[in-house]
Design goal:
By secondary structure, the chain is an alpha/beta fold. It is about 45% helix and about 15% strand. The chain binds adenosine-5'-diphosphate and magnesium ion (2 copies). The site of adenosine-5'-diphosphate has 16 residues, from strand 5, strand 7, strand 11 and strand 12.
């Protein structure tokens, strides 16, 4: 039969799966010989069995009896004994600490009889006995019987008001025994049953309530946000009581071995005399700083400090601690490796390494890419005055202040004259791109974390708050209205915090991130202690990682920044941006061309422009590989909108005008219209269908490379063919590119060094990876499309329509567009890797989808043996760190 119960003497800190975090650490402290009150832990196995069967599993009750008897033996008292009661606390404790779950019930075992016995053995201290009893009624009533906690708080407040005091210590034994009667009535009234007088029944009910709290709405929601699996269950700790509320020589407190905000070593914590449990954090009375305990009780203080040092040395990390002093004796009630800010995480990790407690591998493991990302965002000064008007999703972190604009042209115009602007839209589309680039921040009232606005903003490192659905955005009226009625007009200043999702009216003070200043080459920032901690861990991560990190960059400026941030090349240079703006006209000419000659002329006009684009990028990345993707999106994206054109044509007809160009354009748009453009004429299909298009691009790349080589540079272009599904597609394109290369070599007299490869972003390409690798020198996994094509999800549509339901129902715990679906899409990646390498052992492998910057995905890509990940320039340091963490894991 399964063993469900473990004495505190039976486990240790590595048993978190079975005993939960609190139980495992109580056992560890017991093992270390620290003064932990005797107790036992009911395992997570028991919780899972209970939740499955809807009742306590067989044998659990007997086992609890056995361990309870041992505890009674150890403390020399019996649970709820009317003359000298043993009391216990019933405490939840899952593997990961979870605020959504049931809180602790203290003083279990008290009833109308044992309360009198407790007073007698406490030297007649009736006040203490009734204080303990009323606490039990309050905690049991609210957490086990589900009565609104305010019911009890209100009654307590009324009593204090009647006694004309704010301090619970002014209440007498009589006051408290009266309060006990009030509470019992409230329990009966609100729960429809009397407070159970049987101590064992109290215990069993409290244990059951902890089990059930695993599935409360709050707990489920918390797990979803934190990506904690739903099937772990919680343990229950039953711990014999010690009392901090038996007088002035007693008390309770919390302590940290280091400052969790800065990482500095010292005596951090709070202490409260004559108090129990949560009183310290509940703010009912003013606590004193932990250091004051030295005056109050020197011997308890000294023992606590020794214990803190011992725990930090033992856990080799910052610990937080809960303790109680009963008549001068110190008791340890909890410890765990403490939560900390991103800044403290980096400081502490390096400090511990300096102290020799951990090595640098472990120091790198102790910080995360997400924490580094936090340190890289500019932030609002939290001390500054701020007026919150709305909250949305924290889609792309950072702090942005600017004048509100409602459309892309205004954004670019105002930005060009030097204004900082915030682009506010209901949602954004690719048409808003210019405005998004020009804006300091983007605010939308619709759409989730993977909406267009969010994805694009993250890619650009632009601050974005999305889905602030309390905002009524009136784009035509050029204003938006907040829930509290605040109206913000175009030109008004707002501040948005992409790290918290908050929206403020007016300008909030922004402070620069020193870490980014340092990455950008500002040497003065290097003197900062935090920057030094970050640099040291980054250097170590770079030293140990196998996985290379490249950047997705389309312009020389982005390429240069990526390089400053440590990119080892460009993994994705998109060429479609090079067809926008004032080049649209040339693209239109290409599309409207009626014969091969016109087509050639249009392409010839585009060639020098493209060549200049590539020259700049190759120069910025001199000596490093630059993967350039030939044109990928459907052509209609470069033409005017169908409906707009239709209206224009109708208007012109009405006025009797007939602009042949408009008409021609309209016909072309009609001709190019597709019901499913994402599955239509795009990628390599364009290269095959429009003669000369891909060869023009290849020529531009190779001419740029030849010129760089002639100028003494070291260009390393890699020409990438997108959306290949069949080896034949790649072979056709490859033959054309090679022919162009031969021409360019002949024309320029320069020997060219370049690679030809393909994106793997269609399931068919995965299945034919072996054959495709025959003509590809590299694969780059386009995991956005691969996810889209594998799930059959249109990213632009599914997020708004049903992803939130899927997340709610647990179909997936995180959007597969945010973090790679390793179970499905990941298997395809692994398959293509092994087939591709089988055909060509030196096949170079990388990934260039959004996932390249996602920590979990990076660990996966490392594990399947990719050579590099590529992500947006701002994610490069994050990816470097995560690749280092993956290597040391
Ligand atoms: P949480 O997870 O919210 O910290 P705990 O189970 O640690 O909940 O308990 C809440 C409070 O009750 C803590 O301050 C703890 O120190 C105190 N406490 C828990 N068990 C006991 C006990 N056996 N004796 C005295 N105080 C206790
Ligand atoms: Mg606690
Ligand atoms: Mg793609």
């Amino acid at each position: 039969m399964t063993k469900y119960v473990y004495d505190f003497t039976e486990g240790g800190k590595d048993d978190k799966d079975l005993l939960g975090g609190k139980g495992a650490n109580l056992a560890e402290m017991t093992k270390l010989g620290l003064p932990v009150p005797p107790g036992f832990t009911i395992s997570t196995d028991a919780c899972r069995a209970y939740l499955e069967q809807g009742q306590e599993p067989d044998g659990l009750a007997d086992e609890v009896s056995t361990y309870l008897a041992a505890m009674e033996e150890a403390r020399g008292k019996r649970l709820g004994d009317p003359h000298d009661p043993l009391l216990v606390s019933v405490r939840s404790g899952a593997k990961f600490s979870m605020p959504g779950m049931m809180e602790t019930v203290l003083n279990v075992g008290l009833n109308d009889e044992s309360v009198k016995g407790l007073a007698v053995v406490a030297d007649g201290n009736e006040r203490f006995a009734y204080d303990s009893y009323r606490r039990l009624l309050q905690m049991f009533g609210s957490t086990v019987l589900g009565i609104e906690a305010s019911v009890f708080h209100d009654a307590l407040d009324e009593l204090k008001a009647a006694r004309d005091t704010r301090n619970d210590l002014d209440l007498t034994a009589d006051d408290l025994s009266g309060l006990v009667e009030t509470y019992k009535k409230l329990v009966a009234e609100h729960s429809g049953r009397d407070f159970p007088q049987d101590p064992r029944e109290q215990l069993d009910m409290a244990v059951r309530a902890v089990f059930e709290s695993w599935n409360t709405e709050r707990a489920v929601l918390y797990r979803r946000q934190e990506r904690i699996p739903h099937d772990l269950g919680t343990a229950v700790n039953v711990c014999s009581m010690v009392f901090g509320n038996v007088g002035a020589d007693s008390g309770t407190g919390v302590a940290f071995t280091r400052d969790p905000a800065s990482g500095a070593q010292g005596v951090y914590g709070d202490y409260l005399q004559n108090a129990q449990g949560e009183d310290v954090v509940a703010g009912i009375r003013n606590t004193v700083p932990l250091a004051d305990l030295e005056q109050i009780d020197k011997s308890a203080y000294d023992e606590l400090l020794t214990t803190m040092a011992l725990l930090e040395g033992h856990y080799r990390d910052l610990c937080d601690i809960e303790f109680t002093v009963e008549h001068g004796k110190l008791w340890m009630l909890q410890t765990r490796v403490g939560k900390r800010t991103a800044e403290a995480a980096f400081r502490i990790a390096t400090q511990l390494a300096d102290q020799g407690l951990i090595d640098l591998d472990e120091a790198v493991a102790r910080v995360t890419g997400a924490q580094l990302a936090q340190l890289m965002f500019p932030r609002f000064d939290t001390d500054a005055e701020r007026t919150l008007i709305a909250r949305g999703m924290n889609a792309s972190p950072g702090a942005a202040v600017g004048r509100v604009v409602f459309d892309s042209p205004t954004a670019t115009e105002w930005a060009a004259r030097g204004d900082d602007v915030i682009l506010v839209r209901r949602t954004t589309t690719p048409d808003d791109l210019a405005g998004m680039v020009a804006a300091k921040g983007i605010l939308t009232s619709r759409g989730g974390k993977t909406s267009h606005a969010a994805v694009v903003a993250r890619g650009m490192g632009r601050t974005c708050v999305c889905g602030a659905d309390d905002l009524d955005v009136d784009v035509k009226g050029r204003r938006f209205t907040a829930a509290d009625g605040t109206v913000v007009e175009e030109g008004d200043v707002i501040s948005i915090d992409g790290t918290t999702g908050e929206v403020f009216v007016g300008a909030v003070e922004v402070v620069d991130s020193l870490v980014v200043r340092y990455f950008e080459g500002d040497e003065t920032a290097g003197g900062d202690e935090l920057v030094q901690a970050v640099t040291r861990l980054m250097e170590h991560a770079d030293g140990v990682r196998r996985l290379q990190v490249r950047a997705n960059a389309d312009t020389p400026e982005d390429a240069a920044r990526a390089r400053r941030f440590g990119a080892q090349g460009i993994g994705l240079c998109r060429t479609e941006h090079m067809f926008l703006g004032d080049r649209r006209e040339l693209v239109e000419r290409l599309i409207l061309a009626e014969d091969a000659k016109e087509q050639q002329a249009a392409l010839a006009a585009l060639l020098p422009l493209q060549r200049d684009d590539f020259t700049g990028i190759l120069e910025a990345m001199d000596g490093l590989p630059v993967t350039i993707r030939l044109l990928d999106p459907p052509l209609h994206e470069f033409l005017p909108d169908y409906t707009e054109l239709a209206v224009q044509v109708a208007l012109e007809e009405e006025r009797g005008e007939d602009d042949p160009h408009t008409r021609q354009l309209f016909d072309a748009v009609k001709r190019l219209h597709e019901d499913n453009p994402m599955l239509g004429l795009r990628g390599v299909r364009l290269g095959i269908v429009i003669p000369g298009l891909f060869t023009m691009q290849a020529r531009a790349i190779l001419e740029a490379a030849a010129a760089r080589t002639a100028a003494g540079g070291d260009p390393q272009p890699e020409i990438m063919i997108p959306l290949v599904a069949a080896p034949q597609e790649l072979e056709l394109m490859k033959a054309e590119v090679i022919a162009v290369a031969a021409e360019v070599e002949k024309e320029t007299g320069t020997k060219l060094r370049f690679k030809i490869g393909t994106m793997i972003e269609l399931p068919r390409a995965v299945m034919l990876a072996e054959e495709i690798a025959g003509s590809a020198e590299f694969f780059s996994f386009g995991t956005n499309d691969l996810t889209q094509m594998t799930w059959g999800f249109s990213r632009d549509d599914v997020e708004a329509s049903f992803f939130s339901t899927y997340l709610d129902k647990g179909v997936f715990a995180v959007s597969p567009f945010e973090s790679l679906d390793t179970e499905g899409v990941g298997k395809l990646v692994a398959h293509a890797v092994s087939k591709g390498r089988a055909a060509r052992p030196d096949l170079h492998l990388g990934v260039c989808g959004e996932h390249g910057g996602d920590p979990d995905s990076i660990h996966f890509f490392d594990s399947v043996g990719l050579d590099y990940v590529s992500c947006s320039p701002y994610r490069v340091p994050v990816a470097r760190l995560e690749a280092g963490r993956s290597a040391t894991a």
